[in-house]
């Protein structure tokens, strides 16, 4: 049972694991509110990667990972993930407000 | 194992989170599946039909298990709602402390004021 310490490594290896064997790879999330702990596991029944945390910032990162997995699983392992660029496109519009001249 | 539609599944998931705040765990599993038996899959592959894959999502609190299957069309909407539910419930995780923000030690109420010199 390998606990990965680096988030980025966990994401990288999970994606690799999934692409190598999409039919047997699964992603499990366990959350305990009373302990304030979150554990993520990705396995293809041969190899297992785990990540545990108690940090709120990791919950946000996990949401991005969820998006990646949803995309990969429903569209197929060759789906273009690009860190779910959809969100970034909507945020990329800078709000160019006119310089309000108060007169 | 109860197979639900995505929306009732989300409702049930929410109530699972709510019920397990004091004690208990919520597990959520994501797996890709075509939801067809091996025989059917082989037949489809032989006939040249493209297999349609869906994302199988299972949730359990140890006692009850619910599941749903999400296809590529509904996955965007589902994942947005799912993310909202998670954000709303994962409140017991620690906030990141960059610097140890020492709260103002002035929380001590004015103790000096208790000593009032008695003046005759």
UniProtKB/TrEMBL annotation, chain A:
GO cellular component, one term: cytosol
InterPro entries attached to this UniProt entry: Signal_recog_particle_SRP9/14 (IPR009018), SRP9 (IPR008832), SRP9-like (IPR039914), SRP9_dom (IPR039432)
Keywords of this entry: Cytoplasm, Ribonucleoprotein, RNA-binding, Signal recognition particle
Region ranges (Disordered): 80-103
Localization per record: Cytoplasm
UniProt KW Ribonucleoprotein keyword: yes
MF terms (GO), sorted A to Z: 7S RNA binding
GO biological process, one term: SRP-dependent cotranslational protein targeting to membrane
SUPFAM superfamilies reported for this sequence: Signal recognition particle alu RNA binding heterodimer, SRP9/14 (SSF54762)
Ranges for domain SRP9: 5-66
Family as reported in the entry's similarity comment: Belongs to the SRP9 family.
Protein purpose: Component of the signal recognition particle (SRP) complex, a ribonucleoprotein complex that mediates the cotranslational targeting of secretory and membrane proteins to the endoplasmic reticulum (ER). SRP9 together with SRP14 and the Alu portion of the SRP RNA, constitutes the elongation arrest domain of SRP. The complex of SRP9 and SRP14 is required for SRP RNA binding.
Entry-linked PANTHER family: SIGNAL RECOGNITION PARTICLE 9 KDA PROTEIN (PTHR12834:SF12)
Record protein name field: Signal recognition particle 9 kDa protein
Organism: Hevea brasiliensis (Para rubber tree)
Automatic annotation (TrEMBL), chain B:
Assembly: Heterodimer with SRP9; binds RNA as heterodimer. Component of a signal recognition particle (SRP) complex that consists of a 7SL RNA molecule of 300 nucleotides and six protein subunits: SRP72, SRP68, SRP54, SRP19, SRP14 and SRP9.
Keyword Lipid biosynthesis appears in the UniProt entry: no
Pfam families in UniProt: SRP14
Family indicated by similarity: Belongs to the SRP14 family.
Basic and acidic residues: bias regions: 103-114
Protein name according to UniProt: Signal recognition particle 14 kDa protein
Biased composition range(s): Basic residues: 92-102
Key words of the record: Cytoplasm, Ribonucleoprotein, RNA-binding, Signal recognition particle
Region (Disordered): 90-120
InterPro entries: Signal_recog_particle_SRP14, Signal_recog_particle_SRP9/14
Major localization class: cytoplasm
Gene3D superfamilies: Signal recognition particle alu RNA binding heterodimer, srp9/1
Location of the protein in the cell: Cytoplasm
Summary of the function given for this chain in its UniProt record: Component of the signal recognition particle (SRP) complex, a ribonucleoprotein complex that mediates the cotranslational targeting of secretory and membrane proteins to the endoplasmic reticulum (ER). SRP9 together with SRP14 and the Alu portion of the SRP RNA, constitutes the elongation arrest domain of SRP. The complex of SRP9 and SRP14 is required for SRP RNA binding.
Lineage of producing organism: Eukaryota, Viridiplantae, Streptophyta, Embryophyta, Tracheophyta
